[in-house]
Write a structure and sequence with these properties.
By secondary structure, this protein is an alpha/beta fold. It has a domain of 113 residues: Rossmann fold (3-Layer(aba) Sandwich). 37% of the residues lie in helices and 18% in strands. It is built from five helices and six strands. The strands form two sheets. It has a four-stranded parallel beta sheet, sandwiched between helices. A two-stranded antiparallel sheet has the order 1-2. A hairpin with a 2-residue loop joins β1 and β2. The longest helix is centred in the first third of the chain and has 18 residues. The termini are close together. The relative contact order is 0.14. The model has no long low-confidence stretch (mean pLDDT 87).
């Protein structure tokens, strides 16, 4: 599996980390990061995977659902979810139906995470609207990425990239 990893941070500092604010701003940051990577590496624009943790996972999922033709694959690590995050027109199953049928979403969350129920809710909603989706719960994990995330991330990548 050959890939180019692009991991943009939000523009807004919050404590020791960053905070995403507006979806359109996040989309701009993601687009700029992809363009910068494409200037240095060959990128298959039809095979971009958005991934994020916590608030970044929520942003990745929202961008993917809004633009399934640009972001056919999403990996969401413990992201907040609410049905209001579905894009306008998403509930109309005809809207973006072809792109949505080709989209793949992998949700990861710890069993001890306060957002575990939200990931389960996202899974049910996405399946209902025709998105190929998988939910993986990680035993004993709270709101965190596991110490050795590589095996878990590779499993998620294989699912979304159809390998």
């Amino acid at each position: 599996m050959k890939l180019v990893l692009v991991a943009p941070d939000s523009l807004h500092l919050l404590g020791a980390g960053y905070q995403w604010t507006y979806l359109d701003e996040a989309e701009y940051v993601v687009d700029q990061a992809i363009k910068a990577a494409a200037a240095r590496h060959p990128i298959d624009e039809s095979n971009i995977v958005l991934s994020g943790f916590s608030q970044g996972a929520s942003i990745a999922l929202q961008l993917g659902l809004q633009h399934p033709e640009r972001f056919p694959s999403v990996i969401s690590w413990a992201g907040p979810w609410d049905v209001s995050m579905l894009p306008m027109g998403f509930v109309d199953k005809a809207d973006n139906a072809d792109e949505r049928m080709n989209q793949r979403v992998y949700l990861l969350v710890g069993t001890q995470d306060r957002l575990a129920h939200e990931s389960a809710e996202a899974y049910r909603a996405l399946k209902e609207y025709g998105v190929s989706c998988e939910l993986r719960t990680l035993n004993g994990l709270g709101h965190a990425i596991p110490r050795n995330p590589l095996k878990t991330e590779l499993r998620a990548l294989r699912f979304v990239m159809r390998e």
